[in-house]
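pasting for the record
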Amino acid sequence: MSTHSGPEQLAQVRLVLVQPAGPRNLGAVARIMKNMGLRQWVLVDPQCDPLDAEALTAAVHGADLLHQAQKVHTLPEALQGCVQVFGTTGRSQTYPPEWQIQSPRQAFPALLAAGPAALVFGPEDRGLSNEELALCHHQIQIPTDATYPSLNLAQAVAICCYELYTLACESPSPAPPVPSPQRLASFELLQGFFAHLEALLLQIGYLRPHTARRKMLKFRALFQRAGLTVAEVALLRGILRQLQWSQGSSCQEPLEANRDPVPPTRPGSSGIPS
């Protein structure tokens, strides 16, 4: 049986830059990606032209990646199809206690093992917001000296790419693909579940509009740590629909495209299709 070499695992990794503003940083990122064998990247609402002369000069032999960069308007668009999302942060602040901030070296084994995965970096001037980090399954921070912890965007990307490449080369025989019924739920499938859950919890009064955001952060962290599969998300959404029916709800659940085919059961029925 043939196996992929370590660096080929990196083909599953997508770098996502949110609102990058410096063309030289983009060029430097393209160069380090080429150095470390990464090829996928997405620019979310870029504030500069990736084909700017400064970017092309800084990229050197990585200029082809500047031409290949995908551009989208929002972070959720950039994460479509990913089953694990890793968000980076360099801010010194108190984070939600349910987040488990890890270093790249601690987090990246899970990233390489996940399948399609995204590694997200925020804008140069502010980094990722807590709302953006909440979309991520894992939050990571590069350890730095407290006297000057701030890293330039290109530096942060370089450190992470190096750690990924080193780890991939040390693990030349990845585990076989997870069987289809057990495959992890994609980002968009989880988004549909979270929207459905929030709508129901608001409907039954468990959530209040002024506290919904904070409590949903907790639910997101809980379910994202669980590593839900496609089948498990379908099971949970079936429960949500049954609860909506029992409440006499006539409202449509959010994101209809992500519904699973199991209808709600009625009291007294077996719930087993005939």
